Q: What sequence folds into this?
């Protein structure tokens, strides 16, 4: 077609994401929706398989830092004081499985993988 640009499939020059985080969103014909982000945070996560269940536990503890000056973990999370291990704290995390409703019905089910880049990918 004159003036049309062909589109090549695939990722081109972009490096593929590591297979450590998966996201899926599903909406069925009745409007039921799921937005699910699951991560192991490193190859094989913690390396612990739940007996009788057959799945691996993640390694999100890597998202904490042990010393405020420590380097970022696998996720790229920074070494700030607020991200140190302490009672009642949660590790820095950026998973954003989201369901957007309009008129009380699901209008959008969204999420992504990408570690510390998740927020900038979604928004």
A:
């Amino acid at each position: 077609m004159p003036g049309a640009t062909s589109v090549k499939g695939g990722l081109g020059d972009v490096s593929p994401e590591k297979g450590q985080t998966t996201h899926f969103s599903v909406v069925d014909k009745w409007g039921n929706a799921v937005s699910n982000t699951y991560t192991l945070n490193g190859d094989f996560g913690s390396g612990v398989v739940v007996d009788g269940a057959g799945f691996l536990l993640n390694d999100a503890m890597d998202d904490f830092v042990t010393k405020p000056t420590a380097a970022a973990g696998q996720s790229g999370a920074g070494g700030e004081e607020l991200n140190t291990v302490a009672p009642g704290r949660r590790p820095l995390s950026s998973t954003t499985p989201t369901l957007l409703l309009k008129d009380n019905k699901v209008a959008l089910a969204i999420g992504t993988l990408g570690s510390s880049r998740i927020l900038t990918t979604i928004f």
